[in-house]
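Hello,

Our lab assistant flagged a job as stuck in the queue for most of the afternoon. It eventually completed. Since we weren't sure the result was trustworthy after the delay, we are filing this so someone can double-check. Below is the sequence as submitted and the structure that was eventually returned. Let us know if re-running is recommended.
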Amino acid sequence: MNKKSIITLLLILAAMTAQAQVQPTSALVGSWSGKLDLGVVSLRLVLHLEQHEGYVTATFESPDQGQKDIAAYKEFLSDDSVALKVEAIGMTFRARLKEGKLDGTLMQNGMTIPIVMEKGVAEVKHPQRPQPPYPYETEEVTFRNEKDDATLAGTITWPVGYDAKAKRKPVVVILVTGSGQQNRDEELMGHAPFLVIADYLARHGIATLRYDDRATGQSTGGDVKNATSEDFMHDAQAGLEYLRNRKAFRKTGCIGHSEGGLIAFMLAARKKADFIVSLAGPGVKGDTLLAAQTNRIMQLMGQPATTTRAQLWLQQVTQKNPWMTWYMNYDPSDDIRNSRCPVFALNGDRDCQVISTQNLTAIRQLLPKSKKNLVKEYPGLNHLFQHCTTGLPTEYSSIEETISPEVLEDMARWIGKQ
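-- returned structure --
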């Protein structure tokens, strides 16, 4: 799924990067948080009023959309009132201090939404995130994709009790992130899924290599602006070749999430991986998937679900996004049909970005018959494989769970049999 395509009320705010200065010192300085009630869903909104050399700067944050440092322009600020504006999208925010809370309204596109904000920001805990000291060794490495002039930096996590002199070598998997440039932990919405997966697999005898996407984190080089999933596949392929050349592993596989799951099938079809795990990897043509995704999200938000592929293509003609053009044209059927290595394909039934019924049905029909293959749907899980309520992306950051323990257990068990 393309995270850029998530349609929510405040996503456009991310385009606002200019800092705005407001009134000198105010008693309202600090962070304030509340929830915008949009009917079917609610979005957390955080206002930061920070003191800087006699002035107060104002920024918004939308944690449920992963948006930070959204600059606002001051219309008014006193010890008990504030009025802010984001001019590019015609959004205004006005609030007055009442009984220790900011009682306010957000106005945009003819909508007026009340919001009450309290002082401070509630911390959402993610208990699955591993903390040092770890019971295993890690190794910082780099590998090259010479074709695209990219140097990828990553971390090998060795299994607990790993002995380089042991006769039986461990299995290793390379982890490939979803769409959008992400670091080696696939950090998004406060979660670090790949860190959790690497930790769990290490404790169950399986090595991993996770890496920063090209031109992200410590990785350098490689075109991003014009790159497509095929280019990102070359990065993952370079990682697989690097692991094989080390001659430290028995088998070399791939775990890919979302776009990474698509890349996993591409690698399998080209006989570059000994086995693959596709976490919500697309099983249908890109424009078909995006139309179903958009309609499911709109439906869950109580809006008309009438988007067609033709409408998406009309929008793409205007945007001229190379990645999106390639993705909408890409049909994974041949790659799935030619995946002769063992495949574990899984989806959550509340995934509204890669619809499980559409996706897994196609994969089951296309995948070569093999006793080693496993196609499984998980009840109650979203696109990140979290237990959820609606499956909407706005829930991701507020859910404490990073990834379902059952999914972790099933992956470790299945990979252990390869």
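-- support follow-up --
The delay was a queue issue, not a problem with the job. The result is valid. The chain has a mean pLDDT of 90. DSSP finds nine helices and 19 strands in the chain.
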